[in-house]
Amino acid sequence: MWSSRDRASAGLACVNASPAPCAFMLTLPQVISLPPTPIHTCLGRPVDDRHHLPLMSAAPLTGVLYALAMLKCPPPAPWMEAWLAAAAARMAAQMELVAGATAAGTGEGLAAPGTSSQAGTVSGGRAGGDRRGAGFGPQELSNCMYALGQLGFDPGNDWMQRYCAAAGPLLLPPAGTAPPPPPPPLPMAATSSHGTSTSRSAFTAQGLSQMAWGFARLGFVPEPAFLASLLAAVRRALPDFTAQGLANTLWAAASLGLAPPPSWVAAAAAAALRLLPSCSAYDLSVVLWALLRLGHTPGPDWVSAYLAASYRQLPSASPEQAARMLWCCAAVGLPPPGDWVRRWLGCSYVKLLEAEPAALTTMAYALAALG
After folding, report:
1. Which residues pair with 46 in a beta bridge?
2. 295 vs 177, which has greater pLDDT?
3. CB–CB of 119/130 below 8 Å?
């Protein structure tokens, strides 16, 4: 149960929900413009009340930062420092719960797969039971890393190492589970079935994607042991990823210059093949680029499915996305069919004035490489 101070900030957390629960905030007939202040006011209470942050339980503490990130409203430095200190205390509480459970030789205190230390958090996991509301569970950890990346706020190496220490045990699968099987051949991947959740970590696929994306936005490369656990957790959760989640995860791995094992990249490529029909223009502009950066060149069947999916999405692609798609075709070394090229030229031509110089350069290079 949230305290009264928690409820003071709960209004911001609703921005991640559907519009209906927030309708009570729009009671006036005219449109209300938020004042141009670093921290807005919600429900008549100032959000910039950093003295309440240490008293918040885990869910609203991460929810308020997540909401500020979604509003693109960076908080001032003193508020952010107070938030980081409160979050560090919650992560220390989470590590105490894990250490206590380990010492007792039971699963008590460890978050069950997909659960959080407090029910009702924003995203990153399925709602679970409320143990004490003290430590950061997988939902809070994924939400806060995503929010920090969205805000572009670097909390420093010491804080990030503390974050990894709290998240690391939650990346491990339940004891006694078997390792995942090798990826099936690519033609079979489109009809591969979802695995059972017993081999997953406490993080959902969305939570893993949020964490990896936040790391990449902040330019933070974890220690090798944590990185191995993160990659293994992603591998086990591949059947659960959405197109956007997998695209963001692959983008993060490529942007950070990681070198996952070839079997990991092959499994990710197989999962991406299954998701290609549901990819947006952004997803398509990222997923093949990332696979190529990670040292994996898909085969003709994969590329054919990619061209079919991108053909449908070309009208909605931005100039940067269209440029990256064409660059990927050139990098693969498999020229697209004539109708694809004509559609690309038609869709890109009307948006050339919107293109950044880098996108124009990429287009020119790719067109020259394709002849």
Report:
1. 41
2. 295
3. yes
What is the separation, in whole angstroms, between the first and last Cα of the chain?
Answer: 64
Q: What's the CA gap between 195 and 238, in Å, rounded?
A: 9
Assess whether pLDDT exceeds 90 at residue 99.
no
How many residues are there in the chain?
371
Q: For residue 41, give the H/E element and its range.
A: strand 41-42
* Residues 271-297 as b or e (16 or more Cβ within 10 Å = b): bbbbbbeebbbbbbbbbbbbbbbbebe
Exposed (0-12), middle (13-18) or buried (19+): which is 64, by Cβ within 10 Å?
buried
The string of DSSP codes covering 290-302 is HHHHTT----HHH
Q: Which amino acid is at 158?
A: D
129 Cβ neighbours under 8 A, 6+ residues apart: 115, 119
β-pairing verdict for 45-46 and 41-42: antiparallel
Cα 259 to Cα 255: distance, rounded to the nearest angstrom:
11
Side chain identity, residue 104: A
Q: Which amino acid is at 35?
A: P
For residue 116, is it left (φ>0), alpha (ψ between -120 and 50) or beta? beta
> 303, 362, 363, 315: which is closest to 343 by C-alpha?
315
Read off the pTM.
Answer: 0.74
Q: Which two tokens stand for residue 187?
A: 């033609």
Q: Are 13 and 56 in contact (CB under 8 A)?
A: no
Q: Is 47 helix (H, G, I), strand (E, B) or coil?
A: coil
Q: Per-residue pLDDT averaged across 261-268, rounded?
A: 96
**CA dist., res. 91 & res. 77, Å (int):** 21
Rounded-to-10 torsion of CA 280, 124, 198, 272:
20
> Rounded distance, CA 26 to CA 19, Å?
11
User: Side chain identity at 230, as an amino acid letter?
Assistant: L
41, β-bridge pairs:
46
Instruction: Give CA–CA dist 83/143, Å, rounded.
Output: 14
Gap between the Cα atoms of 47 and 185, Å rounded: 52
More confident residue, 257 or 36: 257
Contact 135, 93 (CB under 8 A): yes
Q: Amino acid identity of 147? A: A
> 3-class DSSP state for residue 173?
coil
